[in-house]
Design brief:
- The chain has 290 residues and is of the alpha+beta class.
- The chain folds into three domains: 4-124, Tetratricopeptide repeat domain (Serine Threonine Protein Phosphatase 5, Tetratricopeptide repeat, Alpha Horseshoe), CATH 1.25.40.10; 128-195, Carboxypeptidase-like, regulatory domain (Immunoglobulin-like); 212-287.
- The chain has helices spanning 4-20, 31-50, 54-67, 71-83, 87-100, 107-125, 196-201, 212-244, 249-287, and strands at 128-134, 139-142, 145-149, 152-155, 161-166, 173-177, 185-190.
- The longest helix has 39 residues, at 249-287.
């Protein structure tokens, strides 16, 4: 029925086959009634097919086959279900046709038709899915399995899947996709850059981010400087108190010792501040190189 010749030749061919075949569901005493009923269903199916009513045509051809088994009817049923998009059922009827009519002249044509439908059926069950991303080079996972990098294209089985894209410096992107039979799916996705705070949070434990140690050294230098200045002022105050007026021997000794101790501590903190400042300067350039 794929060509005009086959459609027009079916009724005549059916009549010949009906007289040749003895397989019938009718009573053996009424073979003519069986042939007539099968011919009626067949003619109706042919007319419905030509009018584009493929489901009704299939029902008529099935009634004809139930009345009197005939290989031509099986081929016609394959044509109907191919038109209806039921490829598995169509291929089944074409194969049944070749089994029932093993010496069919059109066997090569029907076999090639079956091969074409098998390819089409496979494409419908595993439609092509294409994923592109901005930026490119994102790693693609489907249902938790690595599948490549973007731009990526492959066939997926019909049904729901979990798609995930990951790229260094960008937030992971997850998307639920559900390819449909025979419908290619194209996705164009844009990844979101990680914020600075996210980058810091994502750093490895124990590894400072940015110029952390530079600021630690600078802070230490600042604290030491403040301490040195404070102790220096206190030492000077003790010295002024000692020289301002006469004191008892014990009080004078206390002021002397206090001024001397605070002055020494101030000098130590001044040196510490200098070392911390030098260290901070060196760390500033060292950490900036990473």
């Amino acid at each position: 029925m794929t060509t005009r010749h086959r459609r027009l030749s079916f009724p005549a061919l059916l009549v010949a086959l009906l007289f040749a075949l003895g397989s019938t569901r009718a009573s053996a005493t009424e073979p003519g009634a069986a042939r007539a009923a099968a011919r009626k269903h067949f003619d109706r199916g042919t007319t419905l097919y030509q009018e584009g009513h493929y489901a009704e045509a299939a029902a008529a051809f099935e009634a004809a086959y139930q009345t009197l088994a005939n290989g031509v009817v099986l081929y016609n049923l394959g044509q109907c279900y191919e038109k209806l998009g039921d490829l598995q059922r169509a291929m089944g009827y074409y194969r049944d046709y070749l089994r029932m009519v093993p010496n069919a002249e059109d066997r090569p044509l029907v076999e090639s038709l079956i091969a074409r439908l098998e390819k089409r059926h496979e494409e419908e069950r595993h439609p092509q899915v294409t994923v592109s991303s901005e930026p490119t080079g994102a790693r693609v996972q489907v249902d938790g399995k690595a599948r490549g990098v973007t731009p990526w294209s492959d066939k997926l089985e019909v049904g729901p899947h979990r798609l995930e894209l990951t790229h260094e410096g960008y937030q992971p992107l997850r998307r639920d996709v559900e390819p449909r039979p025979g419908e290619p799916l194209e996705l164009q996705l844009r990844l979101t850059p990680l914020s600075k705070s996210a980058n810091v949070a994502g750093s490895s434990p124990g590894q400072p981010s940015g110029r952390v140690w530079t600021w630690v050294a600078a802070g230490a230098a600042g604290v030491a400087t403040v301490g040195a200045v404070t102790l220096g002022l206190l030492a000077r105050a003790d010295s002024r108190e000692l020289l301002a007026r006469p004191h008892e021997r014990a009080e004078a000794q206390r002021l002397h010792d206090s001024a001397l101790g605070r002055a020494r501590a101030s000098n130590i903190l001044t040196g510490t501040a200098g070392v911390a400042l030098l260290a901070g300067t060196a760390l500033f350039f060292y950490e900036g190189s990473f």
